[in-house]
Amino acid sequence: QVHLVESGGGLVQAGGSLRLSCEASGRSYVRSHAIAWFRQASGKDREFVAAVNWDGLIGDFPYYADSAKGRFTVSRDNAEDTIFLQMRRLKPEDTAVYFCAARPPAPDSTVLSRAKEYQYWGQGTQVTVAA
């Protein structure tokens, strides 16, 4: 069983930054699997934000939703079994509960960005961006 715990959410002014963390426990699951960040705003569907996928030849490679490109950076620390989401230039529309999720390496970006393809989920952390 894999257990994921998010932290780092909070209240920030528009234009500010936050760094979210997702700690994995249960086994060294993080190191060769896809770990993604999704978010869900009140009354809306869960949407993909960013992910770190893993390829046996090239190792890690990140993938971002258009809304995150240029503002968010996803990374992983294998020594700590932790995934990070650095968020900059935050906007009010970034307000949501942010979840991390884990699955085996994804074969393509479609699978990588689809919530139903992930087997393990954290409990979420609230991010609120004030205008």
Q: Would you mind describing this structure in some detail?
A:
Helix content is 3%, strand content 51%. The protein is globular and about 40 Å long. The protein starts with a strand and ends with a strand. The chain is mainly beta. The chain is built from one helix and eleven strands; from the N terminus they run βββββββββαββ. A hairpin with a 4-residue loop joins β7 and β8. Strands 2, 4, 5, 6, 9, 10 and 11 form a seven-stranded mixed β-sheet that branches. The protein has a four-stranded antiparallel β-sheet with strand order 1-3-8-7, with no helix packed on it.
Radius of gyration: 14 Å
Helix tally?
1
Query: What is the string of SSEs from the N terminus onward?
Result: EEEEEEEEEHEE
SS-derived structural category: mainly beta
Shape estimate: globular
The number of E-state strands comes to 11
| Helix coverage percent | under 10%
- Rounded to the nearest angstrom, the distance between the terminal CA atoms is 40 Å
Annotation keywords:
131 residues, mainly beta, seven-stranded mixed sheet, four-stranded antiparallel sheet, 51% strand, globular
